[in-house]
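Chain X:
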Amino acid sequence: MLRFILRRFGSSLLVMLGASLLMYVLVINSGDPLADLRESTSSNREQLIAQRTKSLGLDLPWYQRYWTWLTGVSKCVIGACDFGLNRQGLHVNDLLGLAVSSTMRLVIIATVLAIFIGIAVGIITAIRQYSGLDYAVTFLTFLFFSLPVFWAAVLLKEYLAIGFNNWIANPTYPLLATLIIAVVLGIVAQAVLGGNAKRRLLTFGATLGFVVLVLQILAWTNFARTPRVGPAVVLLLAAATAVGATVLLAGLHNRRVLYAGLISAGLSLPIYYATHGLLLEPNWTLLLLLGLSTIVVGIIIGQLVGGFSKRVASTVAAITAFVSGLIILVDKVLVYYWPVYLGRISRPIGTIGSETPNFSGTFWEEFIDKGTQLLLPTILLTLISIASYSRYTRGSMLEVSKQDYIRTARAKGLSERQVIIKHAFRNSLIPITTIMAFDFAGLIGGAVITERVFGWKGMGDLFSQALTAVDPNPVMAFFVVTGASAIFFNLVADILYAVLDPRIRV
């Protein structure tokens, strides 16, 4: 494996070197970097031309300019990258750092959501092949995949941002809208759960009544502006997480795993009060440590309670503990800081930029501000990416389900959950892993159209502006980051192949 990794790494470096040379030559010959100055009527035009010619090295041969750039980039080996200056004389390192951090905020959330939702939808549609749900999901996924990004972005701005901002000023829940929402969710719930006509009708009715009740409670408590969650709701959601994780990974018959999850959920109540002061004004280091602590506590509980199922019990307890921590975190932010933020920003969902200009506040106020600005582009990228993951998951699951070992697993008397999760899903992950690697590496390069529509100053914006200005250094910095990302994630995918299927190692 080590020899394979080193060989792949060496060949990737050679590819990067050749591609960087080609990219550099194409960029410097894509236009005239002095075009704007040649058309200028300024009295010091010649001095400006001479200054830009010197700063960009236009008086040097192309190979000497490329060698200068390559020398600076090669210092990345010792952690001292030098991407040079742009045509305005600014350090590309600083511009790249801001662009990468901005794009990573957008890409990570969108990609993680797309992976989890897309894979879940793909599994469900594979299990319910050729059902009404399968046809409906297929239609929606192809619709999302083919949406013009700029058009979908305009719709999101109009109906989600502007519409929500108008509604939040005086939130109401009209009876007709409540019934429409409840009916739609009821139809979705009965389609997902399936069953005979009686079961579908009961699911529809239960969902309809539950949604109407919840929306009326939200209206009565004015939850949209002054939300209240509280320890009882936190405990209930944590217990639901424990039961759900147990059903998915072990089955409710495994009492040891269920007890580990419920104990982990029960700890959410003392943690809710113990972390009250810490969560009011934290920092990212503290939040990271608290998150890791919840996982460690869950693993310990699983090891102590799990019995012969320690591994699965630790997983369920860790998931429950981590999700409980997130619920507690959301409770603190909503209860203490969302009303304060609404008092300062009357229209919270932003449509342009990654944060409100000149906005400053506490840690959580700034977090909410950046999160609301992140909402629209994240939804857009997630909807587009879900289509790929759900289709590939469905196709891979259907292909695997026809194999002999799946029939053997069913013949041995294994439950359908074990057949799907332990046998079919794991073996279907290999092609999905490839898609994840390419998708994540590509998204790090920035969603150029999305960033342009939402005024997001990320990698895509850095690349498009530099290419328009025939400014090679920012374009090459973009190339290095995206190329290195592609190499890294493809290497990770190769390693995951061997983890998922040990036969690949030989």
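Chain Y:
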Amino acid sequence: MMKHCVTCLATCCLLGTGALAQGLGGPSSVQADLEPGDGLTDPQYRSDFPNNIAPGYFAWKERLAKDHGFRFNLDYLALGQSSNADIGTGNASGGIARLYGNWQATENGSLTFKIENRHAYGSVAPQNFGFDGGALSITGTAFNDNGTMLTNLFWTQRAADASWTFQIGQIDVTDFVDVYGLVSPYTAFQNLAFNTNPTINAPNPGLAIAGGFQLGPNFYATASLADANADPASPDLDVFSDGDLFKSVEIGYTSGFDRVYFDNIHMTFWHSDEASDGSRAEDYGAAFSGAWFINNTWMPFLRAGTSKGTAALYEKSVSAGVGYFARNTDLAGIGLNWAEANGISGSQKTIEAFYRFSISPGLQITPSIQYIDDPLLDSSQSSITLFGLRARVVF
């Protein structure tokens, strides 16, 4: 059984009656990060850390949620990676400090916020480590050195019967565009090939509007309109003056709206305007995603995308793999990706495998390995192997 934390809405979607708690979102969204245990009922853990060292603080958080509808977390994530690449630094590391939460202001309306600081420990951040070693690959998604950013500050309004959801404000469209149950770089795969589809030229968090609608008991449609030039380190309203926009539409099927990112098949169509200053070319494309949670244990997935390829990382991409939800809410995953890039001959193949040890609701340790065959940026290397270790602590 899944509890209502499935309202994380992995596919920019809305849930059914009784489950639409917070609106649009996915496994990497604030809604998901506020819920422990991947939405699994009665999870078992190895420890109660850090709750056991500050019981008064966590009791206070629970009272805030119960009495005032205000929930928040502080968390810190760290990622270190090393590789055997013939070029580059050979290692990269960085961290992310985040404050995020949600205030249920009215019965059907809520305010979501997230402030974060992303930083590198050394000269190269994990997000750029693949490029540094000669691969056209983002090997540490989200672990960049962009500094302090406002990534979420938006209002959600939803129908009392959960038939529609609307959001407006500072939004990260990668929280809901073309996502599935293993999309989060904070809790699952680290390589962009298995996160948001790498053929989609998704913008940085910025001013956006988004909505979702139920189309019967199993089908849904969603859409978004966002600032294609957004800079969360310096948020503004310039989208209204320059008109450079990112647009997306998604049509999907789910076994039930209480399992929307566990059982989901969808198509996503998107378009990004050329930047007015010429710094970014027009791009557009389509993506397919299918994932199904078998016996609440196995999640096989197949994802593919194609784009004009002028601004997205890849022009064509196909990914397949499986996740295994183990005891103690541990999570194992393995994925394989094939990709081609615009203007570069040949194809690049990527394999990633990881095992997330869930020590407690507030502590996770995730070792991983990535193997990149025929790296597109350095044809002199036949392959690159990367080892990674990610940690997350939640207060």
